[in-house]
Amino acid sequence: MPDQLHVHIPFSQFDRHFPLLQKHRLQPEIAFKWPDLDPLLRPAVKRAGHRLAAEGLAVTVHAPFMDLNPGALEPLVREATRQRWMQTLEVAELLHARLVVLHPGFDRWRYGGNSQPWIDACLEFFPALIEQAGRQQCPLLLENIFEETPHTLVAVFKELDSPWLGHCFDVGHWRLFAKRSMEQWFTSLAPWIRHLHIHDNCGDRDAHMAVGEGDIDFDTFFRLVRTLQTAPTITLEIHDCDALLRCVDSVTPLILR
Hints:
Layout: E1 5-10, H1 14-24, E2 27-31, H2 42-55, E3 60-62, H3 75-95, E4 100-102, H4 116-136, E5 140-143, H5 151-160, E6 165-170, H6 171-177, H7 182-189, E7 193-198, H8 218-225, E8 233-236, H9 241-255
Parallel strand pairs: 1-2, 1-8, 2-3, 3-4, 4-5, 5-6, 6-7, 7-8
Helix pairs in contact: 3-4, 4-5
């Protein structure tokens, strides 16, 4: 398995899936939800980190995202987001994670098409998180979700201009929500793309299918990936284990070209 390739594993299912990681030499992207950040579970996080290190498997982390928003106009929502994401950095440090993925949370329908208040709130929100990420040497990567265009992400990246803040391009979410072509997305965000989430769908729901089982143009996707100056790390976000293993076999040759 290529060193830059990871697979999605919820923390709550880590023990159940660890034998699969061992057998197939799969590196996890461990997804945390808010209950997983309970301080009482820190010993379990440490054990997971020790087990992965003993196997020589690198790890990435996906932060909680439900109801969280760094650009929320409600200060209490921003504070809840700050608390959960600082907790995520704490568990990422226990795991010696190579990066943390965050959902930025911008949705134009919530803001009447006016993105600037959201951008301004993000510019106040992120410096403290970036400072902590720098201390841990663990980049924070903002993943596209509901964004129809790249402009909000570009604005945040340009203004904050930090090596510890970058972009996770999720091709499945791009298929569902983006109003710009994949080429336009890469042209705008290429300087900040550090990580990729790969899964397929048919544009009707976030199905997290294996590559080739939906209608995403992966020939174009991998062509664009190969134009990036630095090879990104990758997570296969396939929720069915059999489909995941099929996807590992089909995607690995494309990564190694």
